[in-house]
Each structure stands twice: as structure tokens, then as C-alpha cells.
Amino acid sequence: MIKPSTYQPPYTITPEILNRVAAISEAIGRLTVLTDQARALRLRRINLIRTIHGSLAIEGNTLSEAQITAILEGKRVIAPPREVQEVKNALAAYERFDSWKPESEKDLLEAHRILMSGLIDEAGLYRRGGVGVMAGSQVIHMAPPTDRVPHLMADLFGWLAATEAHPLIASSVFHYEFEFIHPFADGNGRMGRLWQSLILARWNPLFADIPVESLIFEHQAEYYQAIQKSTQKTDSAPFIAFMLRMILDTVTISAPQVSPQVTPQVGELLAAIEGEMGREALQFALGLSDRKSFRERYLKPALADGLIEMTIPDKPNSRLQKYRLTDKGRQVIAQHGRG
């Protein structure tokens, strides 16, 4: 029996976090309705490959999705043996995914043993030495001392078993705290991402098949920045907000695509956005002088449909506010072209 935990990871629930939880819940509801059995099985295989590719690529694995597919099919792949082993281990781990319980420390150690088998001596065991997280030659995080790891992990699992936080928030908090503790000699990144997916899949089984890792890989620098920012603030809110943005974008991409009908004005706005742009730059690019018309006919509808997003969502009226395309917005451009 797990004893009640008095440990409480430090995190703040911001309006941005609440809004994203609501948006993800709504999108997952739509996805559940639209996903039929045959499509689910097809998607599961495609998304498994994308998940493994994304999670290992973050750690420097160079194998392509095609090579991972070949390994899954039992074909011989010419590639560095260690990278092939990483893929085989990840495939074996995801085969066991449905049997693990998120609040079980024993299951976490078993998952690590499978993921890191043949790659490190301490597979399935907490680290015996100190570790730091490096960015190039710079140490960006010094993990807690070795002797504290078992206690910190016991506290974290105790909290996970007892928390009433929404699974979207609880899974992100667990992921951040896990990376902060860095309990293993190697494989901490892929284990943290795997365990967040496991927590989410117990909330809604669709998360077993949604490749959040592939989107994190595309936003890798932001992933590490969010971890660093949370550590500096002693508050995992920046990391929670980042992960929820990745989850929301992935769920949106995974939904069966009905090409959204956009007005000509919104279409022009999407075509005009390059990277991140402020209101004045956008009006200039569109040749518009009337600020009110721009806001009502271009900006607000694009924001409401989730085609663009603010760079500073907490402060909608900030003079530093900029706008960027979401994955949904990029899909509209891909379907309709940039005009």
C-alpha cells in the first residue's frame, strides 16, 4: 500500500494552463468520436514509429522513420549498432506499455531496464553517481546527490498516487520533477516522456497512440528552455504550459482533417505570417491602415479558430505581443497554398 504523500511539487496553475487543459479535453473528445476501429489500428502503427523516432532523435539517434519501420518489420538495417539497439529496446518497451501502472515505481524501473538494455550497465537501477545536464560544454542542471534519489522518487510516486490534479497537469509535473531528479545514469529524457504518455493514456487510451514526442523533437530547444526556466523559478508552470501546447498541437494534428473553411481575410493573414510578427508588421504586410478592421476581420477570427497564437498569451495587450502560426494554421496553408 502506498503511504499518503505529504510531498507537494511546486507549481502554479496559470490561466494559460487552464485554457490549454480545456482546449485539449475538447479536442480529445472530438477525436474520440471521430476515430473508428480500423483507422485506430492503422494510426497506432504510424504513430508508434513517429513517437519512437521523435523521442530517440531528441537523444541524438539518427535513424529515420523508414529505418525504424524496417526494424519493426524484422528487416536488417545498416546503421550504428547502438542506435539499432535503442530502437529495438523502444519497440519492446512500447509493447509492454499497456501493462504498466503510472504510480508503480517497480514498473518504472522495469521500463528503464527494457529501454536501456545493452546500452548501459545500470539498466533498471537508479544511478550510483552524480550527473549533470549539459548543453554543449555548459552544465545547465546539476541533479540532486545520489543518496537522495530513492527518497525523492518515492515522494514523487506518493504524490502521483494521491494527487487530485488533472492528469494533463499531473503528467507534466511528474515529467518535470523526474527530469529534475534525473534518477538514472542515462535514458532520463526518454523515460520522462514515456511516463508522461503512460499517465495520459490511463486518463484517455487515445494518448497511447498520439505521438507527442515527434512534436517535442521539432521544438527541442524550447523543451530544454522550459525545463531550465522552471528550475530557475522553482515552479514547473513554464514546463507545464510548454507540454500542454505540444499536446494540444499533437491532438489537433491527429484529428481527422476536415479542411477548415477560412475567410479570404484570415487566409491572407495566414499567408502573410513569417515566423513571429507583431500587429503593426502584419498590418503593414497586408497593406491595412484601419486597426479596428484588422483586429475584427483578420486577427480575432484566426485566433478563435486556433490558426494563430499569441507569443505572450498571459498578456493579450502587451506592446511586445507577437503572433505565430499554429500547426493547424500551417495545415491550412499546406492545403490551400500561400496564395
Structure, briefly:
With 339 residues, the chain is mostly helical. It has helices spanning 15-34, 37-58, 65-72, 81-95, 105-116, 149-162, 167-181, 188-203, 212-218, 220-233, 237-254, 264-272, 279-286, 291-304, 327-336, and strands at residues 132-135, 138-142, 308-310, 323-325.
Structure description:
This protein folds into 2 domains: 15-254, Fic-like fold (Orthogonal Bundle), CATH 1.10.3290; 264-336, Winged helix-like DNA-binding domain superfamily/Winged helix DNA-binding domain (Arc Repressor Mutant, subunit A), CATH 1.10.10. The protein is 60% helix and 4% strand. The chain contains 15 helices and 4 strands. The protein has helices spanning 15-34, 37-58, 65-72, 81-95, 105-116, 149-162, 167-181, 188-203, 212-218, 220-233, 237-254, 264-272, 279-286, 291-304, 327-336, and strands at residues 132-135, 138-142, 308-310, 323-325. The strands form 2 sheets. The protein has a two-stranded antiparallel ribbon with strand order 1-2. A hairpin with a 2-residue loop joins strand 1 (132-135) and strand 2. Helix 7 crosses helix 11 (237-254) and helix 12 crosses helix 14. The model has no long low-confidence stretch (mean pLDDT 87).
Q: Total strand count, please?
A: 4
What's the CATH first level of the largest domain?
Answer: Mainly Alpha
Distance between the termini: 62 Å
Gross morphology: globular
